[in-house]
User: What shape does this take?
Amino acid sequence: MKHPIHPMLVHFPVATWFLATLADIASLFTNEQIGWVAGVLLVTGTITALLAMTTGLLELGKIDPQSPAVKIANQHMILVMTSWCCYAVSLFLRLNGTQLEQPGLIAIALSVTGFAFLCGAGWLGGKLVYEYGVGTHLNNPGSSK
Ligand code: HEM
Assistant: This one.
């Protein structure tokens, strides 16, 4: 496929994880329902991130190994995987069997940490596209359509 689908899929984990972290913080001040909403968003984000990772790996394989973009792509991958681990453990900590419980302080702290890593990963992802032209016709002359 000429056009990368990674940028299309990343919106799902970015949006759901971000909202999950917001809901986690809100759960410190409001009722239990919002903690449950955060849990559902975490499940969605953690699963959709796996799809984004798969397509990201496909894009990684297309980068010229001599390009300086490889280093940035690897850093992007490490940050995003760290973020995934933080969110996955945060989710695990609030599970009781298959039931989502109110998040504790460690689960909320991990959610906030996961978001910090996600911001770093997103920054580097943007760098790959807008500075190095990864996935664009700049790196693949003649395929601008
Ligand atoms: C194994 C994991 C991953 C690898 C190897 C990877 C690799 C890449 C590569 C090569 C690019 C530039 C080319 C393109 O946009 O298609 C990119 C961009 C990007 N990635 Fe990833 N990625 C991974 C996972 C993720 C995940 C899970 C997210 C979101 C949670 C994400 C968010 C982004 C964003 C926001 C961009 C910039 C897209 C744009 O501005 O158009 N990546 N990634």
Residues 141-145 have pLDDT under 50 and may be disordered. The chain has one domain: 6-139.
